[in-house]
Amino acid sequence: MKLRLKTLSIVGATIAGLTGVLYAASSSILLGSLVQAEEQEATQVVKGVLNVFGQTADDFNSRFADWSAWDDTYAFIQNRDREFIASNLVPEGLANLRVNIALFVNTKGKIVYGTGLDSEKLKLTPVPEALKQRISLSDPLLQHPDPKSSLAGILLLPSGPVLITSRPIVTTRNTGPIRGTLIFGRNLDAAGIAKISKITRLPLIVRSVNDPQLPPDFQEVRAKLSEKNRLWCAP
Fold it and tell me: Which long-range contacts (CB under 8 A, 24 or more apart) does 59-62 make?
């Protein structure tokens, strides 16, 4: 083989090798950038959805400020007047409030009155046992340091997620001393999730991470969850 052909062969092989290296390197860099971009986009989407859930809980909480800061409630938590129940806590009234749980708890952590509501049958039902078991002075639901404090969020019960609000029972003027805690809950059912999906413009499915019957794709995601990468709603 002539020297010229050998030189061309060597140069060609070198260029081909360099091209392969450059292609592999650029592909790796590009793939890494795409993965990072997808992760960032997914994180922003999840944060946006969590913020909507947080805002929904805050709106639910604010609806009942006049119930917890009301002289009639303030008197009821002590005298347990049946007239108050007959006037305010009938199925039709609770349905108008769009609540499925109502609990009135005194300062000793005892339930003065509690009821659930089947909004479809318009019938009073027992308070979910899992929620009743949480009613104690050590639980955050009953810890209100001042008359203007409140707590709102989503509580996961065996029956499903519930929008929950907890407020101190005080006078109409928002003065104490605090006489107890008023808790209202609304089932976050399929209709509620559908409304949030409409706001976020995303198809949402709510499942418990502890559900033994999680679909395979949910299980795959659950395996990758960690305390380090947990996302929280904005306050």
Answer: 60/152, 60/163, 60/165, 60/184, 60/186, 61/150, 61/151, 61/152, 61/165, 61/167
Return the sign of the alpha-carbon dihedral for residues 27, 30, 33, 39: negative
Q: Is residue 159 part of a domain?
A: yes
Phi/psi for 178 (5° steps) reads -65, 130
In a domain, residue 189? The reply is: yes
Residue 74, CA distances (Å) to 60, 106, 167 in order: 21, 10, 12
Of 186, 4, 27, whose CA–CA distance to 101 is shortest?
Answer: 186
Q: What is the CATH number of the domain that holds 124?
A: 3.30.450.20
Range of the domain at 23: 10-207
Residue 220 lies in a domain: no
Can you give the pLDDT at residue 15?
A: 52
| pTM score of the predicted model | 0.71
pLDDT of residue 136: 93
Q: pLDDT tens-digit profile of 135-177?
A: 999 999 999 999 999 988 888 888 888 889 999 999 999 998 9
Rounded CA Rg of the chain: 29
